[in-house]
Amino acid sequence: MKQINVGIIGFGTVGAGTYEVLTTNREIITNRVGGEVVVRRIADLDIETDRGVPDKPDPAILTTNAMDLILDPEIDVVVELMGGLEKAREFILKAMENGKHVVTANKALLAEFGWEIYRAAERAGVTLAFEASVGGGIPIIGALKTGLSGNRIQACMGILNGTSNYILTKMAQENLSFEAAVEAAVTLGFAEDPPTLDVDGTDAAHKLAIMISIAFGSAVDFGHVFREGIVAITPDDIRYAREFGYHIKLLAIAKDLGDQLEARVHPVMIPKDHILANVHEAFNAIFLEGDFVGPTLYYGLGAGRRPTGSAVVSDIISLARDVVMEKRGMVPPLGHVQPPGKAVSIQPMDALVTSYYFRVSALDTTGVLSTISGILAQNGISISSVIQKGRDRKGSVPIVMLTHEARESQAQQAIRLIDELDVVTDKTVVIRVEGNDL
Asked: Which CATH code fits 3-137+305-324?
């Protein structure tokens, strides 16, 4: 029976999870591959700490030098799970130069340096696989590359960051402040301390850029993907949203506009009867719509040792089958044998047209609402609904509004003018609304 040798760079949470899946389900994997998948080398700066895996690796296969496995002629597949950018990029490119297939879960690397890495894989005639880079254990990359490959993807909306979703869930269910919900997430191990890339939208934007690249066959300029986090959201906003019939989620959104593409990550008020509105805790969910298949939904744990390790192993199995069948580089990284000639054009955020939620904190004086309404009207924005509550602190009242559809540039200009009013006591909170056409 043919043996497929694997080298793992990075033996942290995901690396240990990958090793655990490979060893625990060794018999199942062998049957599905038609060959034996063997972990030949593991590289990590720390090779002393016990990773808590049931079948502990032989110390002889552990090394602190990643080049030991990259240059090992017996290794067929290099699995990069160390994270980071420059070193990971260096190791992946070197592995490809040495004829190794590569598996990675590194979404930041692919979002920011993907085009270079995709081309390197094609030049070297090896396969680059990255199922675990988006959605943890959810097989969304495979769905885009194969299951939905006969469709034009018209829309993608997803909860792609479990940490932010956990924080918003706790704020909604337990009326916690943002800070208290973050503390709970860190305590339970759902978040780094501090969870900056999670709560500012960067992590979800990385994943969205990868999905767009596959859907359209061209690497996306990550800098053009709009991102905004959840730091300004309060339990009051969540409560007001509920009164209007919505829940608040951090969504990654892409929509095919024909000649351009919407690509944005930000808090969204979504109708509470929509399936994405009812995804809670640290779970992820991705809503895709194709021109022939229609709407589809993918749901599961978006992070963690075992779910992400499962996704990494799915890539290893796919590559191991290619090795057994003596095929190399059969599927291009983005799933397009003949990629489109032009790069994806991202619509400027100022051109977005949507409805808005505004929460204005203002002094409790006569005529404030009419003044604010006048500014909105001057900028072509009409009000759909208003909630005006009692004082939330001495002299200040929240004025909460939903608008009809307006252009982003108009909304931002109106808010700048409103925040300049002497009667306004705090920066206005703005949340975009996705309508019932979802």
From this structure: 3.40.50.720
Q: Return the beta strands (E) in 272-352 as ranges.
A: 283-290, 294-301
Q: What is the pLDDT of residue 191?
A: 82
Q: Is the pLDDT of residue 194 over 70?
A: yes
CATH topology assigned to domain 140-300: Dihydrodipicolinate Reductase; domain 2 (3.30.360)
Output phi, psi for 261, to 5 deg.
Answer: -135, 135
Q: How would residue 38 be classed by pLDDT, with cut points 50, 70 and 90?
A: very high
- The structural domains of the chain, with segments of one domain joined by +, span 3-137+305-324, 140-300, 349-433
Maximum distance among all alpha carbons in the chain? 84
Per DSSP, helices labelled H in 176-247 are 178-187, 196-199, 202-216, 235-244
User: What's the confidence (pLDDT) of residue 369?
Assistant: 92
pTM score:
0.95
- Which one from 107, 145, 170, 207 is the annotated catalytic residue? 207
Is 207 a catalytic site residue? yes
* Angle (deg, nearest 10), helices 26-33 and 305-324: 30
Residue 190, pLDDT score = 80
Residue 105 in contact with residue 130, Cβ under 8 Å? yes
CATH classification code of 349-433: 3.30.70.260
Mean pLDDT, to the nearest integer, of 362-369?
91
Beta bridge partners of residue 432, listed in sequence order: 268, 356
| Helix intervals (H) in 339-398 | 368-378
Structure confidence at residue 220 as a pLDDT band (50, 70, 90): confident
Residue 389 has pLDDT above 70, yes or no: no
Q: Give the amino acid at 418.
A: I
- Assess whether the region 3-137+305-324 and the region 349-433 belong to the same CATH fold: no
Please, what is the Cα angle at 76 between 71 and 81, to 5 degrees?
Answer: 80
Phi–psi pair at 309, nearest 5 degrees: -60, -40
